Amino acid sequence: MQRNRYFVWTVGCQMNVSDSERLESALQGVGYTPAEQAEDADFIVLNSCSVRANAEEKIIGKITDIQRIKRERPDTKIVLWGCMVGPNNQSIFKKKLPMVDHFVSPSAVDEVLALAPNPIYQLDEPALPVADWEVPPVNVHVPINYGCNMSCAYCVIPLRRGKERSRPMAEIADEVRRICARGAKEITLLGQIVDSYGHDLPGRPDLADLLEHIHDTPGLVRLRFLTSHPAFMSEKLLHAIARLPKVMPDINLPIQAGDDQLLKVMKRGYTVAKYTKLIERIREIVPNVSLSTDIIVGHPGETREMFERTLEMVENLRFDKVHIAAYSSRPGTKAGEMELDPALAVEHGEKQYRRIALERLQERIITERNEELLGHDVEVLVEEFTKGKWRGRDRNNKLVFFEAEGNWYGKVVNIHVTETRPWWLGGDLVGEALAVGAV
Ligand code: SF4
């Protein structure tokens, strides 16, 4: 077997995907090559998620699968990385998972890299978050802040990822410059609460300042950011989105529930009225904005009446996308304690009923909204050729498919919409768009 081969397995959010990409790039920088399967690797890293119970179960299943490798080749190093590893649970895991050699907290790329056996080279500059440089990626995710200072009742992230830390603007700008110089077109800035960026940095720059600072990076065509919190969405940021042509009018703003009493239990820090006012303001300031949200159904204490208020809110606000999750209990959280009380816990069947009811409502709304695009042109950044069709995303982050001869990879094109579905649009190629930064 060839030496110095790694296998990185990732579950969870974009932040984890970005951490893993950065790690893979760093491993390649010190002389490692990727292995197709864990069996062929001598350094195995499992990047874990603990937001939902089934993500943890998936990781435990994977570790159980690969323990055979450790028995056959005891010098293979196995690292459990990511949100499952918190400051207080490492000793429990050490007993429960003896085949794992090291446990590393989320986002600590350098710590994982330092555990790789027999590196051939030393990295002379920080790794970029993309491993395979042969085909330049169209979209690259760049973390700008880590951790979270909030304490939403259902969420384990502050316990696992710690307090908020923002990366300096100059460091982010340098990374964006290097990524775009290698051919990437679109950058998505990532943070647990991306719109609270900068309050812990000298001079307190904010996300609007950062967008402005990196906007004119050569080669950069589009900028997005994820995930925002309603409490931190400022008018200054909204005006920056409206003013800066490379910043896409696409905002993910989780509300989580449409009932004030439940929002209080969740400790979200706003009311439905306040959130609704913010949505109205966003739609006034940012023309043609698309708005997505996240909603948890079946949170402990959520009654059927409360859920019906959530349906009403979704009907009124007409989001472009709703990410729906049935509540999953996380030990150590306030909601996890509430779930132990049978009077507050929502039973499994009821959670599924609420999830399906909300999905059906949102499917109707988005079907109607997408139908409004029939016969119009949308501007698409092309990301992939798959099953005989080109696939990309429009300015509002909607998936668009089209068929055309030639190579459109990485190009910005205009597509005349001829077909709409709830989750995608189809159309005909009009031609290359004159997009900012495309030169
Ligand atoms: S804002 Fe709330 S839900 Fe989001 S990461 Fe922080 S604690 Fe979790």
Q: What are the salient characteristics of this protein?
A:
34% helix; five-stranded mixed beta barrel; OB fold (Dihydrolipoamide Acetyltransferase, E2P); Rossmann fold; 439 residues; alpha/beta; globular; five-stranded parallel beta sheet; pyruvate-formate lyase- activating enzyme; binds iron/sulfur cluster
Would you summarize the structure shown here?
The chain has about 450 residues and is an alpha/beta fold. The protein is about 35% helix and about 20% strand. The protein folds into 3 domains: about 5-115, Rossmann fold, CATH 3.40.50; about 140-370, pyruvate-formate lyase- activating enzyme (Alpha-Beta Horseshoe), CATH 3.80.30.20; about 375-430, Beta Barrel (OB fold (Dihydrolipoamide Acetyltransferase, E2P)).
Tell me what the structure shows.
This protein has 439 residues and is of the alpha/beta class. It folds into three domains: 5-114, 3-Layer(aba) Sandwich (Rossmann fold); 139-371, pyruvate-formate lyase- activating enzyme, CATH 3.80.30; 377-432, Nucleic acid-binding proteins (OB fold (Dihydrolipoamide Acetyltransferase, E2P), Beta Barrel), CATH 2.40.50.140. It contains 13 helices and 18 strands. Strand 14 and strand 15 (389-394) form a beta hairpin. Helix 7 runs parallel beside helix 8 (235-243). It is globular and about 60 Å long. The mean pLDDT is 92. Residues 148, 150-152, 155, 157-158, 192-193, 229 line the site of iron/sulfur cluster.
